Structures are given as C-alpha cells and as structure tokens.
Amino acid sequence: MKRTRRGVLRSIGAGTAVGGVGTVSAAPPRDGETIADIASNDGRFTILVAALDEADLVETLDGNRQLTVFAPTDAAFDNLLSDLGISKEELLNRDDLDEILTYHVAPGRRDAESITTSDEVPTLNGAKVYVDGTVLNGDQAKIFETNIEASNGYIHAINGDNVDGAGVLLP
C-alpha cells in the first residue's frame, strides 16, 4: 500500500506510529541540539538532510517526539545512487522518498544496546528493520557509529561497509 506524504506526516504528528520496545511519548526535549540540528551540522549527512527537507520531514526530527534514526552517510547515498543508476536530483524527486526516509526512523529513544540486542525494530512507515548485531536487513546496511545523542533521541550512523548493500535501508 502506497502511503502519501500527507498520510505519513499525519500519522507522525498524531503519534500513532507503530509502538514497541523503546517507544516514548512526546515530552519536552532535553536541552541541546535535536536530531535535525545534529544531522544538519554534520558534513557526513548532507544528502540525508536534503532528502528530509525535500520530503518535509525536517520538522519531525526537530520536534519533541523521542525518535531513533538510522542515518545513512553521504557515502551510503552515493553507493545507492550508483547502484540505482540515478542522480541525487532523481532520488530527491522520487514519489516514495518519504516512505524511504520514515523507514530509517524508529519511534522512541533507542540506544545502541537496545538496537543491537533486538531482532527487529518498528519504523515510522509501519515496516520493520531486521537487526543482527550491527547489520541491518541482512546486508543492506551496517551501523558504524552509535549513540549520537540528541535532545530528542539517538542517531546511529549507517553505511554499506562490510555488507553487500549500499548502506541505505529500502523498505
């Protein structure tokens, strides 16, 4: 079932995304930078930030809701673009961009131990990411840096090193 950008944003805003271990209700953020701030200020995530902006999801990662993001680096996106034979602009114009991006976001504040000891993690798009230690979805991506702490959750940086995938999770 194809979800529209409006439907995804409505479910995120209403707090009705799939629950599970680590799900936390919206509470005032702690002091400090949000997930959106950290991603925007880290030069490794420029394509991710551009995609979030294009899909109107920056505000979601800048809000009070506690979230966990599997953040593909620019290198991971470059690998994906090469594998798909498309340009960055073509990626940013995909109709399913919001679905891809919300597949990288889990509800709740989940640190590395919570993620790496789980078999699966629910995501905001309703699908699950399958976890085997630091490897995600069998071979799509690998977590290489964990627990980048934000006021509203955690970022776990992912790429395609040491796995067969590009490093970007595809639903």
From TrEMBL:
InterPro entries: Adhesion/Biosynth-related, FAS1_dom_sf, FAS1_domain, TAT_signal
Domain FAS1, residue spans: 32-162
Pfam families cross-referenced by the UniProt entry: Fasciclin
PROSITE patterns assigned to the protein according to its UniProt record, in alphabetical order: FAS1, TAT
PANTHER family: FI19380P1, PERIOSTIN-RELATED
Protein name as it appears in the record: Fasciclin domain-containing protein
Organism listed in the record: Haloarcula argentinensis
